[in-house]
Amino acid sequence: MSLSLKAKVSSNEPVGPEIYLLSLEAPAIADAARPGQFVMLRVSPGPEPLLARPFSIHGADGGKLLILYQVKGKGTKLLTQACPGSELLTWGPLGRGFDLTAERPLLVAGGMGVAPIAFAIEYLCNKFDEVRLLCGVAGTVRHEALIKLFAGRLGSARVKIRYSSEDGSIGRKGLVTDLLKEHFSTSQPLKPDTVLACGPLPMLKAVALLCAEFEVACQTSLEAPMACGVGACLGCAIPAAGGGYLRACQEGPVMEASLVDWEKI
């Protein structure tokens, strides 16, 4: 069940170039939130912009909802101006989150895909002695603050992170899918039974195809434009395998990769 309320801003601080961490006082939504779900936010208390924006849930703790976001356009630029004490219309939690019942999960994040993945890792750390993450970034110069924030929030020794970077400045030079292929090839016989992935669509497509090749189940967290978050506007349609469409806000944003027609993405 989703809720609609005016959430008070606790903090809204820059954590890196064009990257902010927003904390909202929203106990009812925070208590109900599960990793992979999202909320819709009216990014300004004023009448403009008219439409709300979807944001993945980065964390939920002590009645507070954490949103990690990158400034990309007018809406997110306005959101940076939300001051502590102000209120933002918020509804959620929305959508289908990650299935966290696998026995040997592997998490894969690309860029800002770390936002919902961090929430999933916090859950998994309560279940497993070790949680494995493959994280791809453009480079430390561009993502240094994001890497520090991520490492700070997931400082547990149980989280084993391997990085890849396009410029080779951290971890392996190349794409995170290079790390994934290497992991599949060297982790026999205890290869992952499920991959949980979030990041840019080209990355998710490559992850989905690799998982199919190595016969590993895969859950992908998909981004799509949406205006309502409840399935009415149909703006977040994702091509479905076998024809038709899936709604990212209802059947997703987390979808089994086998349900998606990746050739049409």
Key features of this structure:
6 helices; Rossmann fold; 265 residues; 7-stranded antiparallel sheet
Quick description:
With 265 residues, this protein is α/β, with parallel strands linked by helices. Helix content is 23%, strand content 33%.
Structure report:
The structure is a single chain. The chain is built from six helices and 16 strands. It has helices at 27-32, 74-79, 114-124, 140-153, 176-186, 201-213; strands at 3-16, 19-25, 38-41, 53-56, 59-61, 64-70, 87-94, 105-110, 131-137, 159-165, 172-173, 194-198, 217-221, 237-239, 245-247, 254-256. It is globular. It has a seven-stranded antiparallel sheet. The chain is of the alpha/beta class and 265 residues long. Helices cover 23% and strands 33% of the residues. Helix 5 (176-186) packs parallel to helix 6. It has two domains: 3-94, Elongation Factor Tu (Ef-tu), domain 3; 105-220, Nucleotide-binding domain of ferredoxin-NADP reductase (FNR) module (Rossmann fold, 3-Layer(aba) Sandwich). The mean pLDDT is 88.
- State the distance separating the first and last CA atoms: 30 Å
What class, by secondary structure content? alpha/beta
What's the CATH first level of the largest domain?
Alpha Beta
CATH superfamily of the largest domain: Nucleotide-binding domain of ferredoxin-NADP reductase (FNR) module
Rg result: 18 Å
**Going across the major beta sheet, what is the strand order?**
4-3-7-1-2-6-5
The gross shape turns out to be globular
Mean pLDDT: 88
Q: Report the β-strand fraction as a percent range.
A: 25-35%
